[in-house]
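cache lookup: miss for this entity combination. No prior model stored, computing from scratch. Input as submitted by user K.M.:
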Amino acid sequence: QSALTQPPSASGSPGQSVTISCSGTGSDVGGHNLVSWYQQHPGNAPKLLIFDIDMRPSGVPDRFSGSRSGNTASLTVSGLQAEDEADYYCTSSAGSNTVIFGGGTKLTVL
Amino acid sequence: QVQLLQSGAEVKQPGASVKLSCKASGYAFTNYYLHWVRQAPGQGPEWIGVISPSGINTFSAQNFQGRVSMTTDTSTSTVYMELGSLRSDDTAFYYCARQSKHPHSLDYWGQGTLVTVSS
């Protein structure tokens, strides 16, 4: 099964908003509400940012928001801060109790 | 606090098998599924599989079926993953991660175990 499609890079200046897309199919992103987003800083394990398309775990700032339209999910980071510079990955259920990751997007804060 | 403590780095020859462990603490082990995810250097993560805490239910990615085995030991709150027929492209960090109360979202991760496959 192919990875979900994410842009390899994104960037924005401090205070701006950036949106990262995650494209799949009706068998994964479009067919399940089980889309999550993770942030990963170099040398660390991924950190859960968003689950169930648009829900935030406690402790995650509301600057991070998720959405979905058709077979594409999106992560928006508002009010960019230097510490947001990291890699971001989406995941989705792919049916039959399996999970698929996106290829990842490197976010640069200019 | 929730902790997932993974076993140490491994170096294996091509064709060998590796068995990794992940010891959970700080929560009720029997209430949460555990996933395995790997990440090759400089690459994105790749989902390997998931196991129920009882060990009765396991699901794995098609790429790993027939080559991966996951088990649990509820007496020690430990999950194991064995990967066989190792190849050089299996070289990666291997993470265990707890599935939250929301299916397929992973809220706590282990520190990772580096597996190097080299002759």
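stored under new cache key. The radius of gyration of chain B is 13 Å.
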